[in-house]
Amino acid sequence: MESLSIPVPHKVPFRQGGVWIQQAFFLVREQPLTWLLFAAMYGMIQLTVAALPVVGQFLSMVSVPVFAGGFVLAAAKAMRGEQLRPLDLFLMLKPHWQRLVMLGIAYFGLLVLLLMMMAVLLLLLFGDTLQTGQAFERSPVLMLLLTLLMGGSLFVASLSYWFAPAEIVLREGEPLPAMRYSARAGMANWGAMLYCGLILAVLFGLALLPFGLGLLLWLPVMFVTVFMAWHDVCGEGMPRHR
Fold it and tell me: Which residue ranges traverse the bilayer (predicted)?
């Protein structure tokens, strides 16, 4: 049940999306080796889980909110000026991991539902032309609109997840209420969220060069950006860098 004490999300200008990333980088820079270690552990675990037959991809996706919660808790600890320890990514998760797993399952279910709805819509509009590959030639404008609709739907779905791990680990929220609150906060700040996502996407492309080594920095910055966004929109406002 959602608490009445949870504050109404703040509405921030779109440029805050870039400020969140900047503040996240500043925080990571204060204890870089520990954050790089967190990223390396996360990457190795995810690669190992994803390699499992049959259920690997599902388990990998469901586990993302668990690690997101760990990074959020580590970011909150670092913001308080405390020293991070190598195992903090796991040790601080003990009271929260079950709700974070349920969040991952709920988000996975939401994505599957959206994809099924899009598939049904495509079948209703184009039918047999999908099998012959003539759907786009038949109505390119309609296909473009469907592509935009799908992209917009996935973006809205991502807003229902973005703040949810922080709501669970920092406010003891439950998965579904946390997703509803995240959607509410995200929709109120969709411009900043989109701007932040675009910058992170560009940085992700740069992080892949050379040999993906930049991901060791991109991953903690990305996860800490989630905390900075939550703190700004759902918490006490934009924290000042010490």
Answer: 33-52, 58-79, 100-126, 141-164, 185-209, 215-233
Quick one: average pLDDT of 126-142?
A: 62
183 CB-near residues (< 8 Å, 6+ apart): 156, 159, 160
Contact between residue 108 and residue 77 where contact means Cβ atoms under 8 Å apart: no
Alpha-carbon distance of 122 to 135, in angstroms, equals 9
Note the pLDDT tens digit of each residue in 64-110: 999 999 999 999 999 999 999 999 999 899 899 999 999 999 999 99
Q: Positive or negative, the Cα torsion across 79, 80, 84, 87? A: negative
Residues 6 or more apart whose Cβ sits within 8 Å of residue 17 = 191, 192, 193, 194, 195, 196, 197, 199, 229
DSSP 169-182: HHH---HHHHHHHH
Place of tokens 């995810």: 46
Helices (H) and strands (E) counted in the chain, each on its own, are 12, 0
236: which 2 tokens?
């006490």
Chain segment 20-64, per-residue pLDDT in tens: 999 999 999 999 999 999 999 999 999 999 999 989 999 999 999
Angle made by CA atoms 163, 166, 172, in degrees to the nearest 5: 120
Query: Hey, what are 5's tokens?
Result: 């004490």
Mind listing the pLDDT tens digit for each residue in 105-121?
999 999 999 988 888 87
Contacts for 25 with CB less than 8 Å, ≥ 6 apart: 221
Rounded mean pLDDT of the chain? 89
Alpha helix segments (H runs only) across 10-96: 16-30, 32-50, 56-79, 88-91
- Rounded Cα distance, 239 and 234, in Å: 12
